[in-house]
From TrEMBL:
InterPro entries: CstA (IPR051605), CstA_N (IPR003706). Belongs to the peptide transporter carbon starvation (CstA) (TC 2.A.114) family. GO terms for cellular component: plasma membrane. It is found in: Cell membrane. Keywords: Cell membrane, Membrane, Transmembrane, Transmembrane helix. Residues 2-347, 365-505 form the CstA N-terminal domain. This is Carbon starvation protein A. The lineage of its organism: Bacteria, Pseudomonadati, Pseudomonadota, Gammaproteobacteria, Lysobacterales.
Length: 558
């Protein structure tokens, strides 16, 4: 099949989902109110609570949720064939991710910007909240520790990406000052910032930065990991408008332009998909498609991490409640577009089926390297971009997606630490919360792997934990809808599907960890499984109570 067909159908369905389905959800289910005073105004503090232009906020939200996972997941999952991955990404974006991300943002905004973990306490009880926070903390630990490794590996393997990666921070600092301190119109900083960022890619392509084998007793990858955690810690401490928000915004523009370039290359090169639609000759050791597809592709179809971002940082910056549809739902569409691009790169970026099979010789192969190499081939064939320059651009895209997720993730982990302290009766300040989050992440990174790669040790549990968190987030949104007397089926259906697939996957992995004698992952699997079942039980009790008129909340609007 020609890849253009996949591109047109995929982008078309996601566009229709935003234009029509998200409008229905906004008007009939969540019932957005343009006059509602958002937490960004009510609790404005100039640090975390900052009313923000919806385009800037969309950039922050999009790049925060679109880390390396929407590339890695599809790049691995196409081993079962492009068909299942394509259907799950497209339909998952429209009916699962959009509703989930949008709903988490709406629920948080309606409750003074509380995170989804704290909302669980309000709507399903204290026991559920405590267990929910355990799942959230473990997920953020996985994301922060593992993404540092992913970024460091790319900085080492593609040294031409070093200058544009770190140069983006300086560009973001300047844009933040121009917009907030000097009140410059958004247009010119946006255009100038994107041009500078792509200029940095050209400079980086000419001047690769290769670190010495040993720096301060660390190898190159370990040094990058330490530096990345240092950057994330500083970003977590600064007011959101100084670095985090403008960096995410300008990176979002750059990355969206990059996606446009990639899709244009597909249109002009008209490549053939060499991979099978359904692979009936998967390599030995490949797990079954059901349920593993639905946890291998998490980000890009639906992701619990998105609910953490929506309710953790995004809800505190929403200017008007009606902006939630654009920021939340369209943010999910943006990530779906990235995952669709990854599927095309990893199935149409090869000359023959034999070449594709050589890369996908075992489960877990492919990944970011397949995306970069396949996408580079499409850029060369479609636009005549020099081979190394194309690889630099795609590696920089992957790094920036992961880096903006990592700095937001550490900020979110600081929020979780502070919330846990609040539950325990302790007041933990911003600096102390950030230090605790950093210490835990780095303890995992360097404790479970002397070179800083320890984050990858617990990565096999990321997909299932992520999808379970999405299901639990949907359960809270469903409880809120039921209490307000609104139709909950648009969240209940995705909730039930995700819950079944995620619990099924956890049980499958439990067996694998036991047979492999991996007691760390086995123990964590049991903890996550028990916590998820307990929170689910509490949530369904809350739903049952919510249907009782004596327990229902008064709805502000008819």
């Amino acid at each position: 099949m020609n890849a253009i067909v996949l591109m047109v159908v995929g982008l078309g369905v996601m566009s229709l989902g935003y234009l029509f389905y998200s409008k229905f959800i906004a008007e009939k289910i969540y019932r957005l109110d343009p006059d509602f005073v958002t937490p960004a105004h009510e609790l404005r503090d100039g640090v975390d609570y900052v009313p923000t232009n919806r385009f800037v906020l969309w950039g922050h939200h999009f790049t925060s949720v679109a880390g390396a996972a929407p590339i890695v997941g599809p790049a691995i999952a196409v081993i079962w064939g492009w068909g299942p991955a394509f259907v799950w990404v497209v339909l998952g974006t429209v009916f699962f991710a959009g509703v989930h991300d949008f709903g988490a943002l709406w629920a948080s905004v309606r409750n003074k910007g509380k995170s989804i973990g704290m909302l669980s306490g309000s709507f399903i009880g204290r026991r559920g909240r405590n267990l929910f926070l355990v799942v959230i903390f473990l997920l953020l630990l996985m994301v922060n520790a593992a993404f540092a490794v992913v970024i460091a590996n790319l900085l080492v393997s593609t040294p031409t990406s070093v200058i544009p990666t770190w140069g983006a921070i300086a560009v973001a600092l300047v844009i933040g000052q121009l917009i907030y301190r000097y009140k410059v119109s958004l247009l010119w900083p946006s255009i100038g910032g994107v041009l500078v960022l792509y200029g940095l890619i050209l400079v980086g392509n000419q001047y690769p930065v290769v670190l010495p084998e040993t720096i301060l007793g660390l190898n190159a990858r370990s040094f990058w990991i330490v530096l990345l955690f240092g950057y994330a810690g500083v970003a977590s401490l600064l007011p959101v408008w100084v670095l985090l928000q403008p960096r995410d915004y300008i990176n979002g523009l750059q990355l969206f332009v990059g996606l446009g370039i990639l899709y244009t290359a597909v249109l002009l090169s008209s490549p053939t998909i060499v991979a099978p639609a359904l692979n009936d000759a998967v390599p030995a050791g490949t797990p079954s498609l059901v349920p593993l597809l639905f946890v291998t592709i998490a980000c890009g179809a639906i992701s619990g991490f998105h609910g953490l971002v929506s309710s953790g940082t995004t809800s505190k910056q929403l200017d008007k409640e009606t902006d939630a549809r654009f920021v939340g739902y369209f943010g999910a569409v943006g990530e779906g577009m990235l995952s669709l691009a990854a599927i095309i790169c990893c199935t149409a970026g090869f000359a023959t089926l034999v070449d594709w099979q050589a890369v996908y010789s075992s489960f877990g192969s492919g990944g970011v390297a397949a995306f970069v190499n396949g996408g580079d081939t499409l850029l060369v064939n479609g636009l005549g971009i020099p081979e190394q320059l194309g690889a630099t651009m795609l590696a920089t895209m992957a790094i920036l997606f992961a880096a903006t997720t990592m700095d937001t993730g550490l900020r979110l982990q600081r929020f979780v630490v502070q919330e846990a302290g609040e539950i325990a009766g302790l007041k933990i300040g911003t600096l102390a919360g950030t230090v605790i989050a950093l210490v835990v992440c780095m303890a995992l990174a360097f404790g479970a792997g002397a070179d800083g790669s320890g984050g990858m040790v617990i990565w096999p549990l990321f997909g299932t934990t992520n999808q379970l968190l999405a299901a639990l987030t949907l359960s809270i949104i469903s409880v809120i809808l039921i209490k307000k007397g609104r139709n909950p089926w648009f969240t209940l259906v995705p909730l039930c599907f995700l819950l079944v697939m995620s619990l099924y996957a956890l049980v499958v992995q439990l067996k694998q960890f036991y047979e492999a004698g991996n007691w760390l992952l086995l123990g964590m699997d049991v903890v996550i499984l028990v916590a998820a079942l307990w929170v689910t039980f509490e949530a369904f009790i809350a739903m049952k109570k919510g249907r009782d008129p004596t327990h229902a909340d008064a709805d502000a609007r008819p």
